[in-house]
Amino acid sequence: MLLVEDSALIRERLLDLVASCEGFAVTAEVESEPQALAALAQQRFDAVVVDLQLREGTGFGVLRALLHAPQRPLTMVLTNTSTRPVRERCLALGAHHFFDKSNEFDQVAQALDALRATLHRGRHP
């Protein structure tokens, strides 16, 4: 799993959350769009959590890259920028889920549990 998040505190919370999800481990953590693109070029991920505001670049660039990936991972946007137009743009760029950091953080775990069940049945989202 890839975490694309510039806040060390949020990354730490996500690491704890993912650790509680059976069958998943974070294999890469990055803080910027260029780092995310490099990680995606080097490794295949089953799931990616993307923040929109990054140290360099944006999560939108990461979403564009994921949209064209040969095997698209489960893509979750986790952001504080949760307006309707931003949500619609993310979904148009292929995000499977869009979560508000303030009140939907734990839904990342629910999405991972659903992905695990899907992978167990031999399918990918």
TrEMBL record:
Residues 1-116 form the Response regulatory domain. InterPro entries: Bact_response_regulator (IPR050595), CheY-like_superfamily (IPR011006), Sig_transdc_resp-reg_receiver (IPR001789). Keywords: Phosphoprotein. CDD domains: REC (cd00156). The modification 4-aspartylphosphate is found at residue 51. PROSITE patterns: RESPONSE_REGULATORY (PS50110). SMART domains: REC. It holds the Pfam family Response_reg. GO terms for biological process: phosphorelay signal transduction system. This is Response regulator. It comes from Caldimonas thermodepolymerans. The lineage of its organism: Bacteria, Pseudomonadati, Pseudomonadota, Betaproteobacteria, Burkholderiales.
